[in-house]
Design brief:
mainly beta; 8 helices; globular
């Protein structure tokens, strides 16, 4: 793996061999331990391991103190999954080193787990505060899939989250819509049917909201509270009846940023959100007000930092001349909150009491190439990517974005201290930058490239997908219409093509291209990956028809694809080319059931292995 330390991605043959060994060992475990609560034989063990619900009999009765779904893949307690597996602990049973090695391989490279989230599967946008969108849990391994779609009228769910198991052992899906209603919904994770849909217009008598990306990012905590940005604030939802899976949705709390803290009251909105490692909600507005608030949403706990400074508060300065944010944010266990504006990359430091840009406390900012201006389908200027954290433990600790240059570059920043002997990557470049490498998607003659989808990171490796549309004229449309350009993104001649993976070598301290696939087309979807299957999953298109693409993480080659059918009342009418299967900036996610989920234009789709 050339410079990739402490991370292994087994070959296809190795994965098959490991799966066979795991099945045999699962049978041995079941025979040795005998039936118990939730354990009735080898198939139960295989299912439990695949679903991430392995737990001891005591763990099945007692909720975990760290909010990890009573075990959350293993009985992790206060340790990270990687540490528990390294110790060879399975619930209260000690397992052989061989089994620990098999299980550990999927967890290598995992960020430190955060005990305040609902689960290890997908409890917030981009899966965790590192925003890597990669998972140790398995997704589909072949194209034998069952496709189901549910309507989410007038909205697009960009991300969804999965709850901890309820007392009956089953989970729910929480989601929020971006569009005109701003609805919040709750679904049965097994039947994929709606339990409840909360429309503010109906429950609260409010009007339709202005279309924006507010509400795209959400968080589900260990108490089952679902947090969604709404306008200049955050809403918290929960079960009307605590612990009842079939309960209706209840608005639990509502937080609003005071007008005197905003730069442009009435116009400014919360666009990004993540959870800090001390269990608070961190957020950022489109005019770069960074905030932190307790999960109770008590306004007295809120702290703010204005990245535009006093200039931002000067009403004579046009809003378009201020720094803007159009992506979500990331957080690390050392209190760093990572924000990319259309001018700079920031590490804002959360001390536990205040937000600061003081370098003595770990904060920093660095300029990057903000580039070429508006591009077709882009939701703002500068970088179109959520900052993504790379490196754990004693590894090189980095932040990854794609910049805004006409021929965009993969840019890495030193996350903590800069090595003493480090020299700028080029004259005039900020010394904080660790690497700047053009993203060409395999075309050595490329003069332009761009992505609006966040980097997909596992270990020291990162994948970018192309969103460069074929019609240059689409870039001339006004910014308010740019999101709707993506409704054309499956049309041949317009559809973007390309995916490229890079690897950071900690010995040479260089970022190098590993492979490029110039043919795969992922028009606008945020991809995810499973280290258990070694596959990247993303909504794609072929000849105008929408697909689920599975690309080999090791080689970049297509492993399989599934053509999405047009369905009406359960009847298929051929392959889907309509906008309703368009992922429309939504993320693909790997659920605890091994399915892949993604939002679509006005709906939510599930791909279940047969």
């Amino acid at each position: 793996m050339g410079g990739l330390k402490n991370v292994t991605f087994p070959s296809r043959k190795g994965r098959s061999r490991r799966a066979m060994v795991l099945s045999v060992l699962s049978l041995l475990f079941a025979m040795t331990l005998g039936p118990g609560p939730g354990l009735s034989g080898s198939s139960s063990w295989v299912r439990a391991i695949g679903d991430g619900q392995v737990k001891s009999s005591r763990e099945s009765r007692e909720p975990s103190g760290n909010g990890s779904s009573g075990g959350s893949f293993l009985a992790l307690r206060e340790t990270s999954g990687r540490e528990a597996l390294s110790a060879g602990v399975l619930g209260e049973k000690t397992v052989s080193t061989a089994v620990a090695d098999i299980l550990r391989s999927s967890w290598e490279g995992e960020p430190p787990r955060i005990p305040y989230l609902a689960d290890d599967h997908w409890s917030q946008s981009h899966r965790n505060p590192y925003c890597q969108a990669s998972s140790p849990f398995p997704g589909p391994a072949d194209p034998a899939l069952e496709y189901t779609r549910r309507w989410v009228l007038f909205d697009t769910p960009i991300t969804i989250t999965f709850s901890r198991p309820y007392p009956d052992g089953k989970r729910v899906i929480w989601g929020s819509g971006v569009g005109f209603t701003g609805q919040v919904f709750k679904m049965d994770a097994e039947t994929f049917q709606f339990i409840d849909q909360y429309y503010p217009q109906i429950r609260e008598g409010t009007g339709l909201q202005e279309a924006s990306i507010t509400g795209a990012y959400n968080i589900l905590d260990r108490e089952g509270t679902f947090f969604v940005p709404r306008g200049a604030g955050i809403d918290a939802y929960c079960d009307e009846v605590r612990g009842l899976r079939s309960s209706k949705i209840m608005l639990k709390a509502r937080f609003r940023i005071p007008d005197y803290k905003l730069l442009r009251p009435g116009q400014e909105k919360v666009v990004g959100m993540t959870m800090t490692y001390d269990g608070r909600i961190a957020f950022v507005t489109d005019l770069a007000i960074v905030g932190v608030v307790d999960r109770s949403l008590n306004p007295r706990t809120a702290r703010y930092l204005n990245l535009n400074g006093e200039r931002g508060r000067d009403p004579s300065v046009p809003a378009e001349e201020l720094e803007h944010v159009s992506n979500s944010i990331a957080a690390c266990e050392k209190g760093g909150i990572y924000v990319v504006t259309d001018r700079k990359m920031y590490r804002v430091q959360w001390t536990g009491r205040t937000l600061t840009l003081d370098p003595k406390k770990g904060a920093w900012s660095a300029e990057y190439d903000t580039g070429a201006g508006q591009q077709a389908g882009r939701l703002g200027l500068g970088s179109g990517t959520t900052p993504t954290l790379m490196g754990t433990g004693d590894q090189d600790r980095l932040v990854v974005i794609a910049d805004g240059a006409k021929l965009m570059k993969a840019v890495l920043f030193w996350r903590d201290g800069i090595p003493e002997d480090w020299q700028p990557v080029a004259p005039g470049k900020d010394r904080r930058i660790a690497a700047e490498v053009p993203i060409t998607f395999g075309d050595p003659k490329a003069e332009k490239s761009y992505t609006d989808q966040s980097p997909l990171v596992r270990g020291y490796e990162v994948v970018f997908v192309s969103n460069t549309l074929g019609w240059e004229a689409l870039s001339q449309l006004p910014p308010s219409l740019q999101p709707f350009v993506m409704l054309l993104s499956n049309i041949p001649g317009i559809a973007p093509k390309g995916m490229e993976k890079f690897r950071w070598d900690p010995r040479s301290r260089k970022l190098e291209s590993v492979w490029a696939n110039p043919d795969v087309s992922i028009p606008n979807c945020i991809p995810c990956m499973s280290s258990a299957t070694g596959l990247i999953y993303a909504t794609g298109q072929r000849c105008g028809f929408w697909t689920l693409e599975a690309v080999d993480w090791e080689t970049g080659k297509s492993r399989f694809y599934f053509r999405i059918p047009i369905t009406l009342f359960g009847v298929s009418f051929g392959w889907d080319f309509l906008p309703f299967a368009n992922s429309f900036y939504a993320a693909t996610e790997i659920g605890p059931d091994g399915c892949v989920y993604t939002g679509t234009f006005g709906g939510l789709a599930r791909f279940r292995p047969r």
